[in-house]
């Protein structure tokens, strides 16, 4: 299989476009085109000796042994079957049965060939004859056997048969389901079991060649350089001319096919390939102008028109010998006024040729500025538009003066250069300029601009109806303006954007506009344009024509007035860079791209893949997909515009395809719908075709895999959550333990803080009381010191008194010192401090007695230490010395005179110490308070002195108990029992 571009051989011909395609220009695989048919889908098929060729109007595709499975040779014979029923067969030289169906060729196994298409052979008159079958369009077929001609239906059911002897050189052909024969001398018809001689109208000689195409029921005659097709009209056979004055005698013509709808003739040669013949729709008249360039033109008669060169042209292509007028002009303006005079211009000069002198005499007016256009109003008044040199501004002049001496008068300034002028109402001139489109109110000298056309170079204006003003521009396409609604519509252009430079619009009587450009001619339905303006349709179909349709050049001319004509005989004329183009608007038949769209072939990773039932299945790992999309169309390729859109996991908007194929790379898996569309030309409608592309998912993209992954993920998540919960539980247990430990520590800390706070509170309270006690207890010694010092001071000469006083001072100050020292030692003692040591209890008591001995003597108190001199004790000596000091101090204080006794011993296996005085005693409340040894209660109640309280607190530290026995005015005994000391 191969595709080719148009490297063809085109022959210049006035009436036809003739193109030869051959193997010489690498288009056909071989030059012997033995048979030609058109299938039911619109494709042209050719049988050659090097394969089967299919043509779609744009590309040739070859089917041969390389791409058709089972094909054993590329040498093809004639087509057989029924093209209208899409049953086309042919044989090759090795008797392979090849079937053409669904736009492709395939080999049919011999056991599956329908009986009506099988070919048998037999010997007759010592020669081998093939029993050929010629198929009709109604499932019936003719058989040509050894000596009979018969008509059969379906499975070999004989309907009629006639005896007729013939040889292989006779020509059997079929037309309108009737079979004929030419035996070299006469034409014979076989119908309903009868044999009749017939004549063909117009065939006046036997010097002709006959070309038979029975699959298409077409028969052709080549007569004296003309090519005809056989037709039946009014029950008679006649010839219709398809190609005239073209010599095919040396081309070895062996096959032909004529497309009745498209009016295209295909002629096959055994040596020169394929000739495609199209009748030219347009006629280019070169004219006698020196450079061949034409612009403005006006109607002259029903079938004639006048050019600015003065030439008169006829619509059959003739140019009259003598010009109507002779003057050098710029070609841009030509006009007949109401008197029949001809007006034209040359830069800054205006001419008027007089009809009464057969356009020999003329008036001439010269201006300072360049004349841009000449126009005659409805009332007959002549207006001249001018361009002011060096500026965008212009002027309007009107013709005045007398009939004998006419002259132009300045009328008004305009802010533009006039390019085109037309009129509907008497007072309004619709004017095109290089700056847009304008409405000039002539009497009022007022100008209204059409805003949407600002800065557009207007080339021409066409007014079909008062509410339909059509404007062509240079660079921005064309517009429709409604003067009543003030609506301006800008139209979409063709795919090549040729219509951006629109020169002229001519409306024919068939409802079509003809629009010239620099690159060809366009035909468009006026109804479609109006529907687009009213938003009834979204796109517009433009039929495109180029020089292959008969122009001498694709470049038409504009910027002149008039820019084109519709003559009374329905011919349209346009000026071009090479002559004038004329055509009969009623006879131009549009060749529309109305055929179906086909997804021809898929190429995946450079390998062909079959498309079945408009569905293409692909593996997920494909790298490159190339789809071939075609639609048979035998007109200008610019009229066939196929667009595609993709819908699926990945979507794509409408895009035009290039070279009839589209590429994709590595699409995600899923189902895609690739839709192709093209405009058919009928009311700008679309024809659609959709291909479903299914890209299989990889195993890891399937539902089951996803389900499995989900299950695994769920199980994994479950166990992860489970392990996490277990971890969290363990963590919580550990955390609870840690919290418990920290809580315990915190509680201990809080308890410690509470104890510390309590201790601080106690210490503050004690300190307050201590200060009060110190103040109270120091007060008496200090007073005693003061009194003694006064007595000594007053009796300085009494040596005994002085001596007693000094002694008393020493004793009191020493006592005061010991009191303060005792207090200081107490304040240094921690409540929980109890450092034990072993010492002699007797010695400690003696130390304390010596301190208080002087005071006791002064109060006539006897202190007895009855403790065993060898008695030892183990506890905190400092604390116990403070205890003894306080007890001894209290005993002396509370004993005016008498005796204090200190003893120790063992009680209940525990050491005890006791001090007994004969003093004033203590009240029962005080005794009970201290016997309970409730420190907190003692701190909250008022009690004299600090001694016993200090003793109580110190005994608590020393793990000892105190018992008080006291009687008022008899004395007190305090016993201390050491709980852990022996």
Total DSSP helices: 8
User: What class do helices, strands and sheet pairing give?
Assistant: alpha+beta
Q: What's the overall average pLDDT, rounded?
A: 88
Helix content: 10-25%
Major sheet, described briefly?
Answer: 5 strands, antiparallel
Question: Summed up, what is this model?
Answer:
The protein has eight helices and 70 strands. It is an alpha+beta fold.
What does this structure look like?
The protein has 982 residues and is α+β, with helices and mostly antiparallel strands. The protein contains eight helices and 70 strands. The strands form 17 sheets. It has a five-stranded antiparallel sheet with strand order 1-2-27-26-25, with no helix packed on it. Strands 11-12-13-14-15 form a five-stranded antiparallel sheet, with no helix packed on it. Strand 53 and strand 54 form a beta hairpin. Helix 2 runs antiparallel to helix 3 (799-828) and helix 5 packs antiparallel against helix 8 (947-957). 35% of the residues are buried.
Q: How are the SSEs ordered, and which strands pair?
A:
Blueprint (H helix, E strand, L loop, with lengths): L8 E3 L4 E6 L13 E4 L5 E5 L2 E5 L4 E4 L12 E7 L4 E6 L4 E5 L2 E5 L11 E5 L2 E9 L4 E5 L3 E6 L3 E7 L7 E5 L2 E5 L4 E5 L2 E5 L1 E2 L7 E5 L4 E6 L2 E8 L2 E8 L9 E7 L4 E6 L4 E6 L3 E3 L11 E5 L2 E4 L4 E3 L19 E3 L5 E5 L2 E5 L8 E5 L3 E7 L5 E6 L6 E8 L4 E9 L3 E6 L4 E6 L2 E6 L4 E4 L8 E8 L2 E6 L4 E5 L4 E4 L11 E6 L4 E6 L2 E6 H8 L9 E3 L19 E2 L4 E6 L2 E6 L13 E7 L2 E3 L5 E4 L6 E6 L12 E5 L4 E5 L4 E4 L5 E10 L6 E10 L7 H92 L4 H30 L8 E4 H18 L2 E5 L6 E4 L1 H17 L4 E10 L2 E8 L6 H9 L2 H6 L6 H11 L2 E8 L3 E8 L4
Parallel strand pairs: 20-24, 57-63, 65-67
Antiparallel strand pairs: 1-2, 2-27, 3-4, 4-5, 5-6, 7-8, 8-9, 9-10, 11-12, 12-13, 13-14, 14-15, 16-17, 17-18, 18-19, 21-22, 22-23, 23-24, 25-26, 26-27, 28-54, 29-30, 30-31, 32-33, 33-34, 34-35, 36-37, 37-38, 38-39, 40-41, 41-42, 42-43, 44-45, 45-46, 46-47, 48-49, 49-50, 50-51, 52-53, 53-54, ...
């Amino acid at each position: 299989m191969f595709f080719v571009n148009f490297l063809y051989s085109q022959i210049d011909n006035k009436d036809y476009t003739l193109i030869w395609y051959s193997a010489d220009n690498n288009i056909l695989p071989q030059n012997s085109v033995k048979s030609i048919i058109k299938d039911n889908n619109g494709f042209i098929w050719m049988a050659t000796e090097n394969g089967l060729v299919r043509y779609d109007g744009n590309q040739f595709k070859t089917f041969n042994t390389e791409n058709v499975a089972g094909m054993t040779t590329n040498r093809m014979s004639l087509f057989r079957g029924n093209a209208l029923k899409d049953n086309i067969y042919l044989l090759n030289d090795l008797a392979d049965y090849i079937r053409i169906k669904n736009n492709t060729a395939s080999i049919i196994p011999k056991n599956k060939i329908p009986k009506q298409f099988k070919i048998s052979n037999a010997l007759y008159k010592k020669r081998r004859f093939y029993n050929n079958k010629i198929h009709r369009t109604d499932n019936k077929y003719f058989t040509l056997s050894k000596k009979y001609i018969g008509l059969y239906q379906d499975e070999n059911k004989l309907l009629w048969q006639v005896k007729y002897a013939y040889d292989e050189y006779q020509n059997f052909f079929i037309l309108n389901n009737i079979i004929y024969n030419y035996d070299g001398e006469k034409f014979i018809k076989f119908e309903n079991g009868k044999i009749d001689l017939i004549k063909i109208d117009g065939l006046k000689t036997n010097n002709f060649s006959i070309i038979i195409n029975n699959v298409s029921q077409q028969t052709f005659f080549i007569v004296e350089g003309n090519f005809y097709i056989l037709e039946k009209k009014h029950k008679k056979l006649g010839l219709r001319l398809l190609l005239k004055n073209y010599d095919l005698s040396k081309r070895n013509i062996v096959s032909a096919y004529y497309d009745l709808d498209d009016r295209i003739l295909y002629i096959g040669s055994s040596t020169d390939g394929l000739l495609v013949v199209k009748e030219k729709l347009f006629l280019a008249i070169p004219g006698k102008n020196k450079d061949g360039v034409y612009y403005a033109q006006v109607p002259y008669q029903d079938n004639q028109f006048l050019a600015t060169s003065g030439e008169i042209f006829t619509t059959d292509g003739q140019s009259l010998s003598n010009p109507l007028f002779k003057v050098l002009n710029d070609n841009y303006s030509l006009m007949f006024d109401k008197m029949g005079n001809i007006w034209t211009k040359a830069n800054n000069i205006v001419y008027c040729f007089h009809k009464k002198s057969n356009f020999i005499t003329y008036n001439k007016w010269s201006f300072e500025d360049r004349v841009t256009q000449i126009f005659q109003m409805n009332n007959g008044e002549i207006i001249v538009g001018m361009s002011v040199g060096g500026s965008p501004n212009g002027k309007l002049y009107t013709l005045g003066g007398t009939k004998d001496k006419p002259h132009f008068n300045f009328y008004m300034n305009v802010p533009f250069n006039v390019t085109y002028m037309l009129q509907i109402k008497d007072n309004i001139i619709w004017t095109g300029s290089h700056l847009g489109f304008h409405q000039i109110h002539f009497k009022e000298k007022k100008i209204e601009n059409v805003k949407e056309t600002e800065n557009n170079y207007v080339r021409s204006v066409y007014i079909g109806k008062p509410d339909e003003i059509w404007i062509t521009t240079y660079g921005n396409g064309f517009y429709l303006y409604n003067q009543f609604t003030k609506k301006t519509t800008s139209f979409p252009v063709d795919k090549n954007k040729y219509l951006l430079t629109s020169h002229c619009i001519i409306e024919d009587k068939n409802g079509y506009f003809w629009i010239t450009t620099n690159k060809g001619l366009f035909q468009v339905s006026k109804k479609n344009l109006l529907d687009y303006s009213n938003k009834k349709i979204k796109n517009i179909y433009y039929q495109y024509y180029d020089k292959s349709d008969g122009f001498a050049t694709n470049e038409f001319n504009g910027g002149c007035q008039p820019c084109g004509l519709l003559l009374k005989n329905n011919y349209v004329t346009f000026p071009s860079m090479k002559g004038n183009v004329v055509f009969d608007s009623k006879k131009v038949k549009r060749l529309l791209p109305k055929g179906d769209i086909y997804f021809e072939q898929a190429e995946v990773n450079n390998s062909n893949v079959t498309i079945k039932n408009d569905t293409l299945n692909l593996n997920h790992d494909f790298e490159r997909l190339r789809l071939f999309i075609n639609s048979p169309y035998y007109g200008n390729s610019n009229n066939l515009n196929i667009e595609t859109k993709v819908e699926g996991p990945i979507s794509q908007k409408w895009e035009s395809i290039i070279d009839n194929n589209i590429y994709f790379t590595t699409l995600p898996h899923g189902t895609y719908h690739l839709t192709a569309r093209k405009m058919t030309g009928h009311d700008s409608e679309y024809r659609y075709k959709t291909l479903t592309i299914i890209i299989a998912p990889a195993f890891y993209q399937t539902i089951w895999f996803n389900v499995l992954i989900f299950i695994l993920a769920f199980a994994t998540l479950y166990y992860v959550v489970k392990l996490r919960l277990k971890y969290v539980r363990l963590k919580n247990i550990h955390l609870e333990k840690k919290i418990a430990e920290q809580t315990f520590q915190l509680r201990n800390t809080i308890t410690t803080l509470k104890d510390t706070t309590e201790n601080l509170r106690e210490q503050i309270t004690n300190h307050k009381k201590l200060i009060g006690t110190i103040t109270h207890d120091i007060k008496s010694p200090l007073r005693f010191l003061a009194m003694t010092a006064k007595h000594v001071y007053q009796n300085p000469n009494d040596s005994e008194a002085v001596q007693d006083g000094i002694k008393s001072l020493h004793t009191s100050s020493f006592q005061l010192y010991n009191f303060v020292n005792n207090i200081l030692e107490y304040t240094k003692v921690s409540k929980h401090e109890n450092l034990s040591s072993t010492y002699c209890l007797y010695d400690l008591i003696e130390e304390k007695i010596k301190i208080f001995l002087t005071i006791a003597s002064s109060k006539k108190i006897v202190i007895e230490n009855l403790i065993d001199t060898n008695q030892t004790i183990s506890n905190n000596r400092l604390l116990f010395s403070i205890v003894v000091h306080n007890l001894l101090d209290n005993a002396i204080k509370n004993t005016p005179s008498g005796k204090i006794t200190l003893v120790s011993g063992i009680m209940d296996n525990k050491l005890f110490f006791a001090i007994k005085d004969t003093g004033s005693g203590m009240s029962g409340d005080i005794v009970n308070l201290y016997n309970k040894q409730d420190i907190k209660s003692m701190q909250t109640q008022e009690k004299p002195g600090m001694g016993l309280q200090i003793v109580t607190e110190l005994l608590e530290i020393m793990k000892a108990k105190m018992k008080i026995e006291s009687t008022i005015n008899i004395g007190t005994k305090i016993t201390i029992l050491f709980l852990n000391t022996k």
